[in-house]
């Protein structure tokens, strides 16, 4: 017997101090099983308690996360509502509406109060959310409704601005039309086909070169008006204006676009003044009447034609010298291809060829220019002195005696003082009546250097 493996069991029976000793087998597992079962049960209880605690914590976290998500959704919805209310307040001010402003202002105040209450509830942990999921959905609906309201207000504002811009454009167009009409009236006055008042009571014996210069300016105003009209027609027909200018003058001149009109004016003037130094613009075949009677005849024609109603005169006198001159110069100046390109047909050219006179703004402007050149020729012949017309050759040195520049601005753009200026081309020819020289008008360029094209 192994006494070390004995187990003492105490007993209180009778208080006699009797002890019972139980001998156990050292190889027996009875005691170990008892201890193992007790430990396992304790571990199971601990694990179960831990699992329950973890589940409760996870649920609490999930609930808090849902509440915060719902809070943020509600917060964004309220901010969007405030933006919509503020947008409504802004649009109520233009046009100004007291009732609309008060209503919009109250909406802003109400939304701010709601936002303040939401903040207070969050800080006091008193959020009253029926269901976070439902709250999120309701917040999204509120946010979308506020966004739609904001978009509607923005659309109304943009429509109002568009209406205002449309009204402004209409007003500006009306103002532009008024200015255009005023400019046309001024241009009509400047280029009026009425008589030259300074020649009403003048006598042949007191004619002097200053009268010719006045009549020349009168003619050139009409010529420049026609050139502007021709350029507008070219631009409307989408012409390459640079190519058209190069067809008249060589490209190496490098003429800036703002001075391009001088090229077309040169082309028109050269055609219209060709033959100017002869009566009727033709070389005389024989000597006519004596000199004074010729002068008087030219002067009387001048006074008559400067004051006559041009259209009436041309239709009533289709075979007159002025009518033939007008038709001939039109056919020379306005080529068939040019007319077809500008107007899409040759109806005006066909009418002119048949002896008629088209009633169009373009032809009327041309006819007025032709009349003024014609009466200028009659006035020049009225002096009874030898008449010459001259063009200045290209690259000639500039001379103030025989020339004047067509543009002081063009001269100012040429750098350097004392630059050697040369003639690029003649715009308006010069005239010599007896010993009196009327300067030609020329476009100038520096010698050996061309301006840069802009």
Tag the structure with descriptive keywords.
mainly alpha, about 60% helix, 2 domains, single chain, about 450 residues, disordered C terminus, 3-stranded antiparallel beta sheet, disordered N terminus, 3-stranded mixed beta sheet, 13 helices
SSE layout:
Elements: E1 6-10, E2 19-23, H1 30-91, H2 98-123, H3 132-190, H4 209-236, H5 241-248, H6 261-272, H7 291-307, H8 310-316, H9 321-333, H10 336-343, H11 347-353, H12 361-382, E3 387-390, E4 403-405, H13 408-412, E5 421-428, E6 430-433, E7 436-438, E8 440-446
Helix pairs in contact: 1-2, 1-3, 4-6, 4-12, 7-12, 9-12
What does this structure look like?
By secondary structure, the chain is mainly alpha-helical. It folds into two domains: 61-163; 215-446, no CATH class. It is built from 13 helices and eight strands. The strands form three sheets. It has a three-stranded antiparallel sheet, with no helix packed on it. Helix 7 (291-307) packs antiparallel against helix 12 (361-382). The longest helix is centred in the first third of the chain and has 62 residues, at 30-91. The relative contact order is 0.07. Mean pLDDT is 79; it is low at 1-23 and 450-454.
């Amino acid at each position: 017997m192994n006494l070390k493996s004995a187990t003492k069991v105490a007993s209180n029976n009778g208080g006699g101090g009797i002890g019972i000793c139980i001998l156990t087998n050292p190889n027996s597992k009875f005691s170990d099983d008892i201890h193992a079962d007790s430990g396992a049960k304790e571990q199971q209880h601990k694990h179960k308690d831990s699992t329950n605690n973890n589940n409760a914590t996870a649920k609490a976290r999930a609930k808090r996360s849902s509440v915060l998500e719902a809070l943020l959704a509600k917060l964004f919805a309220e901010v969007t509502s405030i933006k919509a209310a503020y947008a409504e307040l802004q649009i109520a001010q233009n046009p100004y509406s007291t009732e609309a402003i008060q209503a919009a202002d109250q909406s802003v105040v109400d939304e701010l109060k709601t936002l303040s209450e939401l903040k207070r509830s969050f800080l006091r942990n008193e959020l009253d959310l029926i269901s976070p999921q439902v709250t999120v959905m309701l917040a999204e609906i509120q946010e979308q409704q506020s966004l739609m309201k904001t978009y509607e207000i923005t659309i109304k504002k943009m429509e109002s601005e568009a209406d205002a811009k449309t009204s402004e454009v209409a007003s500006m167009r009306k103002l532009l039309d008024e200015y255009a009409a005023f400019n046309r009236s001024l241009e009509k006055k400047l280029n009026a086909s009425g008589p030259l008042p300074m020649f009403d009571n003048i006598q042949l014996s007191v004619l002097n070169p200053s009268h010719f210069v006045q009549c020349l300016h009168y003619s050139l105003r009409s010529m420049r008006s026609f050139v502007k009209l021709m350029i507008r027609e070219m631009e409307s027909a989408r012409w390459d204006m640079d190519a058209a200018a190069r067809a008249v003058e060589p490209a190496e001149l490098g003429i800036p676009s703002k001075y391009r009109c001088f090229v077309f004016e040169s082309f028109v003037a050269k055609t219209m003044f060709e033959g100017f130094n002869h009566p009727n613009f033709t070389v005389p075949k024989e000597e006519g009447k004596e000199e004074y009677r010729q002068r008087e005849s030219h002067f009387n024609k001048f006074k008559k034609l400067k004051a006559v109603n041009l259209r009436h005169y041309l239709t009533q006198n289709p075979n007159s010298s002025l009518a033939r001159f007008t038709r001939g110069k039109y056919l020379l100046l306005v080529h068939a291809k040019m007319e077809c390109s500008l107007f899409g047909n040759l109806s005006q050219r066909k009418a002119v060829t048949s002896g008629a006179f088209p009633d169009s703004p373009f032809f009327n402007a041309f006819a007025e220019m032709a009349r003024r050149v014609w009466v200028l020729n009659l006035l020049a012949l009225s002096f009874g002195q030898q008449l010459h017309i001259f063009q200045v050759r290209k690259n000639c040195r500039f001379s103030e005696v025989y020339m004047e520049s067509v543009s002081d601005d063009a001269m100012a753009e040429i750098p350097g003082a004392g630059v050697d200026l040369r003639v690029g081309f003649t715009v308006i020819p010069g005239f010599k009546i007896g010993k009196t020289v009327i300067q030609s008008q020329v476009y100038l360029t520096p010698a050996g250097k061309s301006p840069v094209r802009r």
